[in-house]
Design brief:
The complex is a heterodimer of chains A (189) and B (346).
Chain A lengths: L17 H5 L1 H15 L23 E3 L14 H5 L5 E7 L12 E9 L8 H5 L5 E3 L14 E2 L1 H4 L15 H7 L9
Antiparallel strand pairs in A: 1-4, 2-3, 3-5
Chain B lengths: L1 H36 L15 H11 L10 H17 L9 E4 L2 E4 L8 H22 L3 H32 L4 H7 L12 H4 L1 H14 L11 H4 L9 H26 L15 H27 L7 H30 L1
Antiparallel strand pairs in B: 1-2
Helix pairs in contact in B: 1-10, 1-11, 2-10, 3-4, 3-10, 4-5, 5-8, 5-12, 8-10, 8-12, 10-11
Chain lengths: 189, 346
C-alpha cells in the first residue's frame, strides 16, 4: 500500500548484530545528538520580557470605548450578548438621569456589563454586532488569575479610562470602515 | 591532640558542607542541562539565571505538608530516608580531596581518614545505601513502592558484583586498597617521575565501573527503582516533604561521591599534568590539585546528566541481562587479561 507520508519504514524483527548489542555505538550517536542540541539555539520565548509577534488582527481582551468627549458609547442594546456564541456577555441596562449627559452618550446605558473571560472564545462577533462601535477586541492578553470569579470582568476592567485611551485602529481596517460607511449605520457617527 | 581534632573537625565540616552544596546545585544543573538538551532555557526566574532555584526548592520541601500513610510502618518510614542520606554522606570520608597542606611546618592531609581498606569501606557503605531504599519502599505499604524497592535491591546487588570485579583488576595494577595511595600513585611530573592515570591501564575496567556506577546511583538508563511511567514514583511514591527531599538529595550526593570515586580511581584524583614541573610551592600545588579534582568531578556529573537526558530506560529483563550476562563475564575477562599482562610484563 502506498504510504501517505512517504516516510514509513518496514519494521523487521531481526537479531541484533554484535555492535548493536554492545549499545555503545548507538549511545555515542545519541550523546552526540544531545550535545548538539545543548549548544544549539533555544526555542524558549521569555514571555513577560519578550513577546512573540502577533497578527495585526489579533483578538484579545475586550474594551468598551468612549467617544471623543469621554462618554461611554455602549447603550446596552444587548446585541453583543445575543450574538455571543459562548454566552459570555451579560449586562443590565439603566436610564440616563439628568446631569449624566457627560457620562453616557445615549439615554440608555449599561449599568453593569460583564464578560466571562473563561467562556469567551475571542471570536469577535460582539464587535461585529455592536451598532454603536462600543466594544472592540484589542491586542492585550487576558492575564492569569487564581480564582474563577476573577475572570468575570466588569465595567471597571472593560471600559477604557478617559485619560488612557486604548487604540483600536488596527481593528478598524479599511474594509471595516467601508462597511461602516453604509448609510444604515449613519446614526453611529 | 586538640589541634588534630580541630583540623579533622574543620575538614569534616568542609567536606560535609561542600558535598551538600554540590548536591544542592546538582539539582539546578540537572534542570539546566535537561533544558538545554531539549532546546529550552530552564529555571531562570529565581535570581540571576535562576541561581537561587535550589534555595526555593529547599524552602518548598520544608514547607510542604508531611504525610505518613495510615498503614505505613511509621518508624521505618522515617528511618528509610535517614539511612539513604547517611550512607550517601559517609562515603566521602575516605576520598582524598587533595594532597597535603603545610601550615607552620605541620603537614595536613586533605583526606579525612586514609583507611588502608578505603575501597572496601566505600563498597560497604554503598551497599548499606540500598537499605535506605528497601526500608522506605517496604515501610510505605504500597505495592508500587515495594516493587521499586525490590527492583532497587536486585539491581544494586547485580551491578555491585561487576563493579567489584572491575575494581579488583584495578587493585591488581595498583597493589593497594587505600584511596590515598591510589591517588598519589597517579601523580608526578615529566621524566622518571611520570605516571599515567589508571584509565590508561584499565580502560575496560573503567567502562564497566562507570556503567555500574550509573546503576548504583539509580540514574538513567538504570532508574528502574523510580521509573515514573511504570511505578508511579517507585520506592518514594508515598513520600512527601523533606523526606522525599532526602531521597532526592541522597541520589545527588551518591552521584557526586561516585564521580569523585571515578576521578580518584581512574582519572588521577587530585593530580594534574605537569604538577611538579611548574615550580610552585606545595600548598599552591595542593590547592590547584583540589580544584583539578573538582573540575574532574564536575565533568563526571555533567556526563551523568548528559546520559540521563539522552537514553531511555532499560526494560527490566534487559537490565538483568546486561548485568549478569554482559558486564559480569566482561569484568571477569578483564581480571584475567590484567593478570596475564602483568605476568607477561614481569
Amino acid at each position: 500500500m502506498q504510504s501517505l507520508s512517504g516516510r514509513s519504514k518496514v519494521v523487521v524483527k531481526k537479531e541484533m548484530t554484535f555492535a548493536e548489542r554492545m549499545y555503545l555505538p548507538a549511545i555515542w550517536n545519541g550523546i552526540m545528538i544531545t550535545i548538539r542540541h545543548f549548544f544549539g539555539k533555544k526555542a524558549t520565548v521569555k514571555y513577560p520580557e519578550e513577546k512573540r509577534p502577533i497578527s495585526p488582527v489579533w483578538r484579545g481582551q475586550h474594551v468598551l470605548k468612549r467617544d471623543e468627549e469621554g462618554r461611554e458609547r455602549c447603550t446596552a442594546c444587548g446585541l453583543c450578548a445575543v450574538s455571543c456564541p459562548a454566552e459570555a456577555i451579560t449586562m443590565q441596562a439603566a436610564e440616563r438621569k439628568k446631569g449624566e449627559e457627560h457620562l453616557y452618550r445615549e439615554e440608555r446605558y449599561a449599568a453593569t456589563y460583564e464578560i466571562n473571560m473563561l467562556r469567551c472564545i475571542f471570536c469577535g462577533l460582539c464587535e461585529e454586532a455592536c451598532p454603536k462601535e462600543a466594544i472592540f477586541l484589542t491586542d492585550r492578553l487576558v492575564t492569569t488569575e487564581f480564582g474563577r470569579g476573577e475572570f468575570i470582568y466588569g465595567k471597571d476592567k472593560l471600559v477604557e479610562p478617559v485619560d488612557a485611551r486604548i487604540d483600536v485602529s488596527k481593528r478598524q481596517t479599511k474594509a471595516v470602515l467601508d462597511f461602516k460607511q453604509d448609510k444604515r449605520f449613519a446614526h453611529n457617527r | 591532640m586538640t589541634e588534630f581534632l580541630t583540623y579533622k573537625l574543620i575538614l569534616v565540616a568542609a567536606v560535609f558542607g561542600i558535598t551538600l552544596f554540590i548536591a544542592m546545585y546538582s539539582t539546578y544543573f540537572e534542570r539546566k542541562v535537561a533544558a538545554f538538551m531539549q532546546d529550552r532555557i530552564g529555571p531562570n526566574r529565581a535570581g540571576p539565571f535562576g541561581i537561587l532555584q535550589p534555595l526555593a526548592d529547599g524552602i518548598k520541601f520544608f514547607m510542604k505538608e508531611e504525610i505518613i500513610p495510615a498503614n505505613a510502618n511509621k518508624i521505618l518510614f522515617v528511618i528509610g530516608p535517614c539511612v539513604a542520606m547517611l550512607t550517601a554522606l559517609m562515603a566521602g570520608v575516605v576520598i582524598p580531596w587533595g594532597g597535603s597542606l603545610e601550615i607552620n611546618g605541620v603537614q595536613y592531609s586533605l583526606q579525612i581518614a586514609d583507611l588502608n581498606i578505603g575501597i572496601l569501606y566505600v563498597f560497604a557503605v554503598v551497599s548499606i545505601g540500598v537499605y535506605g531504599i528497601m526500608i522506605g519502599g517496604w515501610a510505605s505499604n504500597n505495592k508500587f513502592s515495594l516493587l521499586g524497592a525490590i527492583r532497587a535491591s536486585a539491581q544494586m546487588i547485580s551491578y555491585e558484583l561487576a563493579m567489584g570485579l572491575s575494581i579488583i583488576a584495578l587493585i591488581m595494577v595498583t597493589g593497594t586498597l587505600s584511596l590515598g595511595e591510589i591517588a598519589a600513585m597517579q601523580g608526578g611530573g615529566v621524566g622518571s617521575e611520570w605516571n599515567f592515570w589508571n584509565i590508561v591501564y584499565q580502560p575496560l575496567g573503567f567502562m564497566i565501573f562507570i556503567i555500574c556506577a550509573f546503576a548504583e546511583c539509580n540514574r538513567m538508563p538504570f532508574d528502574l527503582p523510580e521509573s515514573e511511567t511504570e511505578l508511579v514514583g517507585g520506592y518514594h511514591t508515598e513520600y512527601s516533604s523533606m523526606k522525599l527531599g532526602f531521597y532526592m538529595f541522597a541520589e545527588y550526593i551518591n552521584m557526586f561521591i561516585s564521580s569523585a570515586l571515578m576521578a580518584t580511581l581512574y582519572f588521577g584524583g587530585y593530580n594534574f599534568p605537569f604538577m611538579n614541573d611548574l615550580g610552585l610551592s606545595t600548598n599552591v600545588v595542593t590547592i590547584l590539585g583540589t580544584l583539578a579534582l573538582f573540575v574532574k568531578i564536575a565533568m563526571f556529573i555533567f556526563f551523568f546528566m548528559w546520559i540521563r537526558w539522552t537514553l531511555p530506560r532499560f526494560r527490566y529483563d534487559q537490565l538483568m541481562n546486561l548485568g549478569w550476562k554482559g558486564l559480569l563475564p566482561l569484568a571477569i575477562a578483564n581480571v584475567l587479561i590484567t593478570a596475564f599482562v602483568m605476568i607477561l610484563l614481569d
